Amino acid sequence: MAYFCTAEQVRFKCQTTDATEVPTALIDDCIAEVHGQILVRLNPTLDLESPPEALETGEALLAGGCLMRRLAAKNATTKATVVVGGQRLELGKQFEALLSMWKALEGEAWQILSPYLNGIPRRSIGIATDSVPVLGESG
Question: Which of 64, 61, 58 has the alpha carbon at shortest distance from 46?
Answer without folding.
Answer: 58
